[in-house]
């Protein structure tokens, strides 16, 4: 049973396994990166390369409910930059491929991950937890093939890939797109324009910004409205989940305005540094809006606790520790803290920028303070000037005592 995307690595893996006499069934788990035509092309490629069968699993709804929703509630960005576009998808893909393998009585599971990145650890960790008796074949990892060797082999057996695919690897899902290869092997060069598959450059983005109104309930998007400005054609394959469909639409609108490009450099699970490009216009827009609404509706202590535990949650998912019960504990906190995260946020997308213009909510702590007569910058009827002076006097005590020691 081979996890199959139709890209260079999995195409090479399928061709080699068939060449060695294996009976291979391919499984494509759609996490939002493929439309119907692309899924049909992947199946054609699978069968042309010699697979005995091909299975497509629609993982979009489950991915959103179990993974994307909590990444959003946690405002998670790996190292403050990257919304783990591929990381969380790999666990779902590995679990679904393993499920199909068990249902069909497969002897082994294969994947096309290299041994230098994170994906091979994620695939193996999930497979071993769900089906410890299944053999795991990591052909690219175990035999250390280069992309050039894979390209040449496929060309020689009559299944060539494009030169761009040979140089760069692309992983596309609802969370975003990642780009590896080429300039990402070093730390200095930026990816060229042709390496960004979905987002427009800032130079090509419209001069007129797009203004959006995004609704939230219990911390999750309930829909959006394009209030003004140009937007991308938002026609797409909907699944009837307002949060998922909003994310998919914002991916397309944000890409039109050059939003969501980034480069992430960080430590891999294996302990080395890795670098990749990513495009995540929808997720970055939603996180910016979600944070703005949380600032209005959550207490300072709630926001601090969420920031700490949300980072722990996201890092553990990114690093493949999917089955650790701590994740369930943190999910409970994220769910509880999200009860009052309800309202609307105005967002402007313009030339690569995401700007939260304002927010409103019936749970607004700002409105609650104003209702009690407290307005920041203009005094408050909740206390007198003398009471404020006394508070400031007492509040300064710790600093006064520390300073009085004369040690600094």
Structural class of the helices, strands and pairings?
alpha/beta
Q: Could you state the CATH homologous superfamily of the largest domain? A: HUPs
Shape: elongated
Rg, alpha carbons: 25 Å
- The spatial strand order of the largest sheet comes to 6-7-11-10
- How many domains, as an integer? 2
Count of helical stretches:
15
Count of individual beta strands:
13
Description:
Helix 4 packs parallel to helix 5. The longest helix has 19 residues. The protein folds into two domains: 174 residues, Rossmann fold (3-Layer(aba) Sandwich); 168 residues, Argininosuccinate synthetase, chain A, domain 2, CATH 3.90.1260. A four-stranded antiparallel sheet has the order 6-7-11-10. Strands 9-8-12-13 form a four-stranded antiparallel sheet, with helices on one face. The model has no long low-confidence stretch (mean pLDDT 93). It is 44% helix and 20% strand. Strand 2, helix 2 and strand 3 form a beta-alpha-beta unit. The chain is α/β, with parallel strands linked by helices. The protein starts with a strand and ends with a helix.
Q: Features of this protein?
A:
2 domains; four-stranded antiparallel β-sheet; elongated; single chain; alpha/beta; Rossmann fold; Argininosuccinate synthetase, chain A, domain 2; 408 residues
Q: Would you kindly provide a brief summary of this structure?
A:
The protein has two domains: 2-175, HUPs (Rossmann fold, 3-Layer(aba) Sandwich), CATH 3.40.50.620; 193-360, Argininosuccinate synthetase, chain A, domain 2, CATH 3.90.1260.10.
What are the SSEs and their pairings?
Layout: E1 2-3, H1 8-19, E2 25-30, H2 36-48, E3 53-58, H3 60-73, H4 87-104, E4 108-111, H5 119-130, E5 135-138, H6 139-143, H7 147-156, H8 163-167, E6 168-173, E7 176-181, E8 210-217, E9 220-228, H9 242-256, E10 261-267, E11 273-279, H10 281-297, H11 300-318, H12 326-337, E12 343-350, E13 353-360, H13 365-371, H14 385-395, H15 397-404
Parallel strand pairs: 1-2, 2-3, 4-5
Antiparallel strand pairs: 6-7, 7-11, 8-9, 8-12, 10-11, 12-13
Helix pairs in contact: 1-7, 4-5, 9-10, 11-12
């Amino acid at each position: 049973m081979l996890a199959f995307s139709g890209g260079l690595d999995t195409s090479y893996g399928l061709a080699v396994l068939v060449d060695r006499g294996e009976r291979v069934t391919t499984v494509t788990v759609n996490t939002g990166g493929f439309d119907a035509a692309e899924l049909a092309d992947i199946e054609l490629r699978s069968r042309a390369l010699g697979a005995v069968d091909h299975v497509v699993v629609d993982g979009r709804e489950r991915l959103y409910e179990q993974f994307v929703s909590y990444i959003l509630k946690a405002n998670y960005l790996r190292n403050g930059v990257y919304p783990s576009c591929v990381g969380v998808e790999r666990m779902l893909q590995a679990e679904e491929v393993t499920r199909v393998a068990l249902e069909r009585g497969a002897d082994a599971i294969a994947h096309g991950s290299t041994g230098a990145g994170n994906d091979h650890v994620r695939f193996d960790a999930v497979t071993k937890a769900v089906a410890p008796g299944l053999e795991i074949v990591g052909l690219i990892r175990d035999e250390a093939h280069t992309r050039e060797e894979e390209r040449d082999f496929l060309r020689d057996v009559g299944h060539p890939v494009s030169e761009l695919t040979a140089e760069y690897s692309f992983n596309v899902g609802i969370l975003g797109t990642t780009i590896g290869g080429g300039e990402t092997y070093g730390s200095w060069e930026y990816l060229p324009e042709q390496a960004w598959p979905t987002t427009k450059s800032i130079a090509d983005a419209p001069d007129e910004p797009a203004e959006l109104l995004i609704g939230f309930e219990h911390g999750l998007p309930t829909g959006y409205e394009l209030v003004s400005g140009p937007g991308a054609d938002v026609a797409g394959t909907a699944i009837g989940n307002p949060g998922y469909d909003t994310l998919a639409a914002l991916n397309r609108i944000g890409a039109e305005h050059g939003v969501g490009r980034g480069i992430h450099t960080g430590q891999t699970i294996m302990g080395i540094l890795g670098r990749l490009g990513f495009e995540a216009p929808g997720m970055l827009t939603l996180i910016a809006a979600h944070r703005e609404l949380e600032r209005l509706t959550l207490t300072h202590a709630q926001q601090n606790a969420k920031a700490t535990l949300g980072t722990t949650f996201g890092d553990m998912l990114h690093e493949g520790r999917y089955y650790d019960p701590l994740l369930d504990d943190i999910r409970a906190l994220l769910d509880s803290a999200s009860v009052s995260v309800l309202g609307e946020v105005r967002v402007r997308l313009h030339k690569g920028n995401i700007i939260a213009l304002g927010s409103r909510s019936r749970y607004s702590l700002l409105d609650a303070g104003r209702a009690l007569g407290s307005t920041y910058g203009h005094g408050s009827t909740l206390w007198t000037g003398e009471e404020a002076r006394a508070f400031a006097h007492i509040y300064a005590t710790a600093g006064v005592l520390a300073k009085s020691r004369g040690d600094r």
